[in-house]
Design a protein that fits this description.
Number of helices: 1
Largest sheet: none
Number of strands: 0
Structural class: mainly alpha
Helix content: over 70%
Low-confidence stretches: none
Amino acid sequence: MTDKRINDISEIEDSQAALRESIQATKELAERADGLLQQHRARREQESAGRRDRASSMSSG
């Protein structure tokens, strides 16, 4: 193999490694975002349930 071809292969391998790292980082960010979204939805549901409970107790009291 020529030096240029070896260099090209090395660059391709480096690019593939960088892409793998980027994909992994993207997956981790997506998982974190999903977790935050679930927390937000749960909190919103709790707040909504609390409002319903207060409204119910106010109308019956």
